[in-house]
Specification:
CATH architecture of the largest domain: Alpha-beta prism
Structural class: alpha/beta
CATH topology of the largest domain: UDP-n-acetylglucosamine1-carboxyvinyl-transferase, Chain
Largest sheet: 4 strands, mixed
Radius of gyration: 21 Å
Number of domains: 2
CATH superfamily of the largest domain: Enolpyruvate transferase domain
Bound molecules: ligand EPZ
Helix content: 25-40%
Length: about 425
């Protein structure tokens, strides 16, 4: 079992380059199934979830060639429409192949994603919306058996609740439905805008007609495309918090600051000094950290994927902070581990009260999910003494070269076999 050893406390200092976005790459990879022409994707992050999604595409018959972050996909002979549990269970985004497989073949058998540490991860919103495009489905032994006997027919659909995955699945499916689809109450995360830009680069006809409303005119054919995936805004936010929590001085490159303005404004309010340039954010941490209350929300609100990270920072605040997790039902798995490092966080349902003025001490720790594991690293960087973080396979799902990037700016961190 691989683990990470971290010695703290020390200030981070220097430059960090942000990689491509995992959460933009995954729906874009799923959407390549619509094409039977050559597709070239650039700036893909070299992380486990991307390899899992590529394996899933290969299991469906895609021919892929992945080298130095560039992926060439050919679907000339892509004929299969069965996505197995073995691949989908480790990466819930596997359900995103359902929409494109239905658009292409009119039927598909895809494993239910199953739950994970942060929640049950249902797909009821995906399925109800697909049925409005004419899809019939039944769930048999953990698989979705779905078919659209007359093909997908465009329709007007309003999501009952904002869902990133359901919005992505439906945008992809509607791109090759017959006629026009209008989706309302869509999620508008930047990764979804990136997916739409990718589909348009393939010749799809898609237009945002209001803040959360999108119009899609189905097309029969798509064309060859080369597309570069956007930067990973959650990785960027994570390193901004790393600078703030270690009172460091970091220049974070390869990003678009306007996309993370909520996070930047919150970090400024907490006390960090931040200067924004075209593709760079320069952050200098402050010894005085101001407590504040945070509520996670769909974009452009504060991202749930940064909740664990900002919690670490607020442990060093000058008072109490309240964190409300409004997206997932069980996303406080990091709290017990942080408390073992000296934090004093109490939770009640989806609310956490974070006591301030904490100084962390190193400990042996257990990662539970992707973002919780990185919050343990942030705490370990500012803790006195040695920390060992177990089960870092969670981390490898979504952070490219994290030890290398942190070592380069002065962290004492290494991977133990
Ligand atoms: C995406 O997950 C991201 N994953 C998550 O990032 C992110 O936390 C989440 O969006 C919210 O921003 C990818 O993009 C691959 P949702 P997704 O559908 O699509 C409920 C990470 O760390 N819901 O917006 O699964 C659901 O249970 C990951 O990179 C239903 O009830 O999120 C949750 O409570 C973690 N029924 C809420 O909606 C459904 O059919 C939001 O889920 C679908 C979702």
């Amino acid at each position: 079992m691989k683990k990470l050893e971290v010695f703290g406390a020390n200030k981070l200092n220097g430059h960090i380059n942000i990689s491509g976005s995992k959460n933009a790459s995954l729906p874009i990879l799923a959407a390549t199934l619509l094409s039977n022409k050559k597709v070239c994707l650039k700036n893909l992050p070299n992380v486990k979830d991307i390899h899992t999604m590529i394996n899933l595409l290969q299991s469906l018959g895609s021919k892929t060639n992945f080298y130095n972050k560039k992926l060439i996909i050919n679907n000339f002979k892509q004929k299969k429409n069965f996505a197995s549990y073995a691949l989908v269970k480790t990466m819930r985004a596997g359900i995103l192949v359902l929409g494109p497989l239905l658009a292409k073949f009119g039927n598909a058998k895809v494993s239910l994603p199953g739950g994970c540490a942060i929640g049950t991860r249902p797909i009821d919103i995906h399925l109800k919306a697909l049925s409005k495009l004419g899809v019939k489905y039944k769930i048999v032994q953990g698989y979705v058996h779905a078919s659209a006997p007359k093909g997908l027919i465009g329709s007007k659909i309003s999501f009952p609740k904002i869902s990133v995955g359901a919005t992505e699945n439906l945008i992809i499916a509607a791109s090759q439905a017959k006629g026009t689809t209008v989706l309302s109450n869509c999620a508008i995360e930047p990764e979804i805008k990136d997916l739409v830009n990718f589909l348009i680069s393939m010749g799809c006809s898609i237009k945002w007609i209001a803040k959360r409303k999108i119009k899609i005119d189905g097309v029969k054919e798509t064309k060859e495309t080369t597309y570069s995936v956007m930067f990973d805004r959650i990785e960027a936010g994570t390193y901004l918090v790393a600078a703030a929590v270690t009172e460091g001085n970091l220049k974070i490159n390869n990003l678009i600051p306007s996309i993370i303005k909520t996070e930047i404004n919150i970090l400024k309010k907490i006390g960090a000094k931040i200067r924004v340039k075209r593709n760079q954010v320069h952050i200098i941490g402050n010894k005085k950290i101001k407590s504040m209350n945070i509520k996670t929300a769909p974009y452009p609100g504060f991202p749930t994927d940064l909740q664990a990270q900002i919690m670490v920072l607020l442990c060093k605040g000058n008072n109490k902070s309240l964190i409300k997790e409004d997206i997932f039902e069980n996303r406080f798995m990091h709290v017990a581990e942080l408390n073992r490092m000296g934090a004093q966080i109490s939770t009640n349902g989806n609310k956490a009260v974070v006591k301030g003025n904490i100084s962390f001490t190193g400990a042996e720790l257990m990662a539970t999910d992707l973002r919780a594991s990185v919050s343990l690293i942030l705490a370990a960087l500012t803790a006195k003494g040695k920390s060992v973080i177990n089960r870092i396979y969670h981390l490898d799902r979504g952070y490219e070269d994290i030890e290398k990037k942190l070592k380069k700016v002065g962290a004492k961190i290494r991977r133990l076999k």
